[in-house]
Request: fold
Amino acid sequence: MNPQLRRHIASGLFILGFFLLWEALCWLFNVSDIVLPKPSQIIITLIARMPALWPHVLQTLYTTLIGFGLGIAIGIALGVLIGSSRLAYDVAYPLLIGFATIPKVAVVPIFVLWFGAGGVPAVLTAMIMCIFPIVVNVATGLATTEPELEDVMRALHASKLEILWNVGLPRTMPYFFASLKVSVTLAFVGTVISETVASNRGIGNVMMIASSNFDVPLVFAGLLILAVLGVALYAVFSVIETNITGWAHRKDEMAIG
Amino acid sequence: MISTIVPDPRAHSQYFVELEAVTLSYGRNDKKIHALGLTNLRLMQGEFVALVGPSGCGKSTILKLVTGLINASSGYVYVAGRQVGAEPVRVGMAFQNPTMLPWLTVRENVMLPLKIVPPFRQEYRAKHKGEFRDRADALLKEVGLANFGDKRPWQLSGGMLQRASLCRALVHEPQLLMLDEPFGALDQFTREELWAIMQELWTKLRPTVLLVTHDLKEAGYLANRICVMRARPGQIIDDAEVPFPRPRTIEMSYTPAFVALTQRLRELIVTARPAKDAA
Reply:
């Protein structure tokens, strides 16, 4: 059996084991559904309510992806700006950290005030959640580019833009993709926060209503959906990462002495 | 010497590279560091000149001045009869580190100058899978890396990378080749092998070469002329022709005449060291 398959199987068994343990503990201590529903019951709820839940799932996914896309665009732009100039780095960093420290749940009401309840605040919240890790990683990747690599280009009289395009950005890709994996999960958090506070659609809203009705299995069904979506998107970016930045994950057995 | 009149370019056309009363200093006022004292250096077209001297004597500084990576504090630097930077001259450069870009294959690394330097850059899209690729492969074959074009840089040894680095410095047929201790980090055998390859490439393509090195044997083997520098402030204190016929061989480096040459250079460098370093 190849080691990769073995790792996948181990990982699957671990997840299965986690839910089995949960189920067993619920049975053993006779935990009430209102407190902690059994996994089996969550699955049953999920299947039974799926037709009603599905539009909300799509809504949340859609909102998250738009917010994430905007976050990537702005994050790269800011990261390139901050990472390629010492001055911009020194000037902008304190402000950026200030913004990053603000609890995102606190800005949702402001967005609602500006744009009204609904999809727009959710997109924006997802966006600001995922900007920071992208900016920091892109800026770090650019700022730590080896000067020797840039010298190669400068000796050829390459322009700043050409150096950025041919050396800076490719060099930054591993950092960038590492940040995407973090950011995509944060984008979900942002969307759900906003949907919980001010929306009438989306998984966040469903969970909010369900918890006020003491429909705890449905709340957990919502959490499960979010977890699955998060893992799925993480996996997508992992695959893209290995394809694009394979050079950064070199395998020793391929090297020639 | 300092004049506000722009000198007539034609007056300097007999040399391909000319440093005229160049100085370079960093910092200001009391903390001023004179990296390069008053320096004159002339290279004929197609000449191979080696710069030797103690470390920190400004050898690499001269390379950077000639490529236009830094500007002189005073004096003039002419390349191809024009002040440096006025008209882009095709420059190839190889450093002590091979500095291959790890996300590109070896062939793509070699082709990098074609992507950047005019007139090749305009045709890069059209030719990078045809003519340019063949050109890179031909060079790689010449340095003994025929089957390594598709490899990644980290799959190659240090000596192989340095060969690829030479290919990259030469692929765009530079008029001027700058070699900043490109063989310095290699073992003796690989180094000698690369000297032979370098000599062959130079004989074939005849770029004007400026080689910075610590290795006197290397300077004697490769160069037509050797300039000796001293440190603080950096200055050229000796400039001598290397009379040996080409192609030169390693065996030649054991002849009395060659040994006498390297010994003379060695003495010059040792005595030129500043007094505080001599102890």
